[in-house]
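Q: Entry one of two.
A:
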Amino acid sequence: MEENGINRIIEILSSKTNLKILEILMESNSYPRKIARKINKTEGVVVRALKSMEEVGLLDSSWGVMDGRPAKIYSLKTGLLFLLFDFTEKESLFIRFPKKYVNFIKELLKNNVDHFFSFSSFSKWERGDFSYNDLAFLSANRETIEEFLRFAKENTAQFCLLACYLRIKSLKEEEELKKLKEESLKLLEKAKE
């Protein structure tokens, strides 16, 4: 992806209105009028924001029926929230995750970060390729770990975003940070295919 494209995404993610819209779409697909009511903005403002996010590949849209009326329905493009740009000003990501799962992610980050949270591993979580044996070292019983694996598979985009968010917050080395951002560009390109 061109430098200008990345700069545009960073610009989009620095807008509080866009972040509110993304938070709504993390919960479920929606349409402009409903989003506008939720964030207390005009429908025109929301439509322009949605279009700009769709243009850079953050969102998909299709015509359908929602709340009993025809509407252009927007959804997050799977994988694109693996972006490693720190676009959360508050800890809202944590709210959607049981605390024990946040702690499991922290353990995985400490144990073998490249094995669990590299470019190739994101699709492994989505396919459910990791098994209990891969995570047996976690401080939990088998049943809890298997619940965690199901949760990660069902919530892969948000789960991996949280892992990346935690990882990037802890990085001190410029080289490692650069490598992580390069991986995020690969994820962007893959998601646009």
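Q: Entry two of two.
A:
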Amino acid sequence: MSNKKPQSMHDASDYIRGQGSAAIGARLRRLSERIDRDAARVYAEAGITVELRWVGALKVLSLYGPLSVGELATSLGISHVSVSQTRNSLEKAGLASSIPDQEDARSRKVQLTAAGCRMIKQLEPLWKILEDVAAELDEEANRVVAALDRLDAALDRSSLHERVAGRLKTGARQAVAHKRPANAGPAMRTSVSRKPL
């Protein structure tokens, strides 16, 4: 990361981009927000009332049928809390409902309602166009999805937290070593053995 301070507002007009790999998280969030804004606009112009957080769950439920919150979380790669919030929102909208798990009476599964199935029928043609456009963008951006797969794999090997913690631990050891003067031992022995005049 560069420590050079911007000389004018023009230099800071895209601070995040200027930080390069140091701002990878911010860049990903910004791209996600940008894509989500456009997707929301597409749905709105099509006259379909849908929250973007529903889309993944709706797709998975339409493909695999009733699933538990845990199964949905695993399939989507997000937290149980996020899936629970999405399920509650879908149920409130009348698009999904919870049913007892036939294999485990203590658990419940989420399934699409008739209204949810009708919405899927509305969404499928639009999803096909969105998927085609996403593939076009991926190709134009020189296979960015493959790069994201590599980033996922790198984080699986060692998370951001693990990498930072390792650097901090190494840095702390080095700092302690630097603080201890090389002649601390001999100097101390000299001061102790010195007799007053």
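A: Comment on entry two: Residues 114-140 form the longest helix (27 residues). The chain has two domains: 1-42, 43-181.
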